Structures are given as C-alpha cells and as structure tokens.
C-alpha cells in the first residue's frame, strides 16, 4: 500500500505541471529567433539605448552660442511739472512717445575665447561614444545570460527525453510483469523493484520540470515573452560535431578582443574624456569677452547717446589652477584603470580560450553514433530482460549506466556550447 500511495503521489507531481502546461499557449522558438526577439524587445536594452540620444542632445546644446542679453533700465514712469519746470524738456521720439522720458537700453553678447565652445563640444562627443560603449557592454552581458539560459533549457529538454525513453521501457516491462505476477510466474519482489525504478525516473523528471520552469522564466524575461507562454527551444546546434570544431588562433583572438571589447573601449574613452576635459579647463584660464552696445536717452549731456563697450575678467587671482590640476589627476587615474582593464581582458580571453580547448578535447572523444548505439542497447536490454535472458541486477546496472552515459554526453555538449559563448563574450563579438 505504501508503494502504491507513493507511486500515485509521484505521478500527480509530474502530471499536474504537465496538464497546466497544456492549458497554456506553447511557443516554439529556435535560439536565433529567441535572440532576435531579445534584441528587439528587451526592456533593459531599450532603456539603455535611449542614453545615446540623450548624450547627442548635449552635443547639440554645446554647439549653441550664448544668448545675447538685453537690458532696459532708468525708465521714469511719469514726469511732474516740478521736475520739468512746466516746460517741455525732452521732445517725443515719435508721436507723443518719449516726451519728457528718460531711459537706457543695453545689449550684451558673451564671446567665448580660447576655443572653449569647440573643446566643450569635443567633451560631449566623447560622452556620446561612452554611451554607445555602455550600451554595447550591457548588450554583451545580457546576451551571454540569455544564451546560457537557452543552452540550459536545451540541455534540460534533452535530459527529459532520456528519462522519457527509460520510462517508456520500464512501463512496457511493468505491463508485462503485472500479468506474470498475477499468474504466479514471477515473484512480486521483481515487480516492486521495477515499480521503484519507475518512481525514481518520475522523480528525476519532476526535478527537471522545475529546472525547466526556472530557465523558461529567465528566457521569457530576457525576450519580453508573456508569462503564460510555455517555451520550447529547438535542439538545433546543441550537439556540435567534432569535425565542426573550429581551429582558433590565440593571437588573433587576443587582437580581436582588444579591438571589440566595449568595456575596454569604455575605459579608453574615460582617459580620452579626461584629456578633453583637461584641455577645456586649460582654456578656461583665458577670460571670456563681453561686448555691449548702449543707448541712453536724456541721461547725460547728450539727448540720444549711443555707445559701445566691452568687459573682461582680469585673471589676477583665479586662473582655474585647481580645476586644471584636478583634471590632470583624473587623466592619470583613467590611464591606470585603462591599463588594468587591458590586462583583465587579456586574462579573460586566455582563460576562455583554454577552457574551450579543454571542452573540445573531451567532446572529440565522443564517437559519432555513440548516442544512437546507447539507445539501441536500451531497446535490446529491455527485450532481453523481458525474455528473462538478463537478471534484475544486470538490467538495473544497465539502466544506471545508460542514464549516466547519456547525462555525461549531454553535459559535455553543454560545456562546449557554454565555453564557446564565454569565448565570444571575452572577445566582444561572435567570433565562433
């Protein structure tokens, strides 16, 4: 009774999630289609991409000249008889406008000297390049996470297929053994042992189902897929033939990484930005010039006075020394960080390259057709056991060996796929 109860519990634990899946919409995608959906609909990427036009808007702002400033002052709102002595002192400008009226007007224009405007534009342009590098770095990181989740889901689906083949074989035997037990030809203990094996397989499938749910949830988040969709990723490209393993030249890979890694480019741009900022701070030592034109009515000896003027700061005390010194220190810091990042890239590429070679070496030991031979042996062992040509111990030993071998093969292919993606990640583009 305990065996039967545990069997029913395990069956329900497997069937309930499967029934709920059928109630959902199933979405079948290839890895390429899923990645295309990720590139077009991932919300983090779309948000980060908006940083680029934001930076471009600041370049546009830096190109603009300072606005001229207009001032109107010294306007008398009225003129009393005591002020004018009862006489018309100031004639009108036209009509009756301006009669006995005093006012002054001035327009000023700031002129940036020492090419400050051009140097500020250069600073903002570097920030545009940084925004692009930051976007590419985010894309590089998210793409690695997505691809690893896709590889994991493929791996879990194939492991589930292995369990299903075992489960099908065991259930065929159980159907035959049940009749034999009832007729008294086979001891009930052998039937119970097969039933126990079925439960172990069902438990393994249930564990896989939970892992698949986690992988699907992550992929749905990356690709902005509705939560009620049950995702199935095609198994294309998971098993990499040994003949298809590419020959990778390490110096070429290292050079590719130095040219393509967005985080390295971002660190180099930090140094470039610091140098541009230092140029701008040095330019600020030169005072800016303000020119102005003035009109004054009835404010001095002349009734209508037109004048020109200019103003400039005298750099006696403040020659922007502190900001220039700070910019130099920032540039030195950025150079050291850039050198550190270069070494980091070299070490990451070296590690990814060596890990890939190691994974290739193991994969190359899997003979072509070996998996098919294992599946054929499963059928043969099941038939021989059914015909009583094998003992229970021999059959169970084979089932364990079959599962271990299949999982080892799938883990090997999974490792090769992940190492490939890690090398692509280390290089900064899809090298392989």
UniProtKB/TrEMBL annotation:
Identification of the protein by name: TolC family protein
InterPro entries per record: MdtP/NodT-like, OMP_efflux
Pfam families: OEP (PF02321)
Keyword Coiled coil: yes
Organism name: Ravibacter arvi
Statement: the UniProt record of this protein carries the keyword Transmembrane helix: no
Keywords: Coiled coil
Signal peptide positions on this chain: none
Coiled-coil region list: 139-225
SUPFAM superfamilies (alphabetical): Outer membrane efflux proteins (OEP) (SSF56954)
Domain of life assignment: Bacteria
């Amino acid at each position: 009774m305990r065996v039967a109860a545990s069997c029913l519990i395990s069956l329900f634990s497997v069937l309930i999630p499967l029934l709920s899946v059928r109630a959902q919409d199933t979405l079948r995608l290839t890895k390429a289609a899923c990645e295309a959906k990720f590139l077009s609909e991932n919300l983090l990427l779309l948000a980060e991409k908006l940083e680029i036009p934001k930076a471009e808007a600041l370049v546009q702002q830096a190109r603009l000249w300072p606005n001229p400033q207009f001032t109107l002052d010294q306007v008398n709102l009225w003129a009393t008889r005591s002020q004018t002595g009862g006489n018309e002192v100031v004639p009108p400008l036209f009509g009756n406008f301006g009669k006995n009226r005093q006012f002054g007007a001035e327009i000023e224009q700031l002129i940036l000297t020492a090419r400050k405007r051009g140097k500020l534009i250069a600073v903002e342009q570097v920030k545009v390049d940084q925004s692009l590098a930051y976007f590419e770095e985010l894309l590089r990181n998210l793409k690695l996470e997505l691809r690893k989740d896709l590889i994991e889901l493929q791996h879990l689906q194939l492991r589930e297929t292995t369990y299903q083949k075992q489960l099908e074989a065991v259930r065929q035997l159980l159907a035959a053994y049940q009749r034999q037990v009832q007729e008294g030809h086979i001891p009930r203990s052998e039937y119970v042992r097969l039933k126990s094996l079925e439960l172990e397989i069902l438990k393994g499938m249930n564990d896989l189902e939970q892992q698949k749910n986690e992988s699907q949830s992550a992929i749905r988040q990356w690709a902005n897929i509705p939560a009620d969709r049950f995702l199935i990723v095609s198994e294309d490209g998971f098993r990499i033939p040994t003949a298809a393993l590419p020959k990778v030249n390490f110096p070429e890979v290292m050079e590719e990484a130095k040219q393509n890694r967005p985080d390295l480019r971002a660190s180099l741009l930090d140094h470039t930005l610091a140098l541009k900022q230092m140029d701008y701070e040095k330019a600020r030592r030169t005072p800016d010039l303000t020119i102005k034109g003035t009109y004054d009515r009835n404010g001095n000896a002349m009734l209508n006075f037109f004048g020109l003027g200019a103003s400039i700061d005298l750099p006696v005390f403040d020659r922007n020394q502190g900001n220039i010194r700070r910019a130099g220190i920032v540039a030195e810091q950025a150079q050291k960080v850039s050198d550190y990042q270069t070494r980091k890239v070299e070490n990451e590429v070296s590690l990814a390259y060596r890990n890939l070679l190691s994974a290739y070496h193991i994969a190359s030991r899997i003979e072509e057709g070996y998996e098919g031979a294992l599946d054929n042996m499963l059928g043969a062992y099941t038939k021989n056991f059914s015909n009583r040509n094998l003992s229970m111990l021999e059959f169970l030993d084979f089932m364990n060996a079959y599962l271990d071998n299949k999982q080892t093969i799938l883990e090997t292919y999974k490792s090769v796929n992940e190492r490939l993606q890690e090398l692509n990640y280390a290089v900064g583009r899809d090298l392989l």
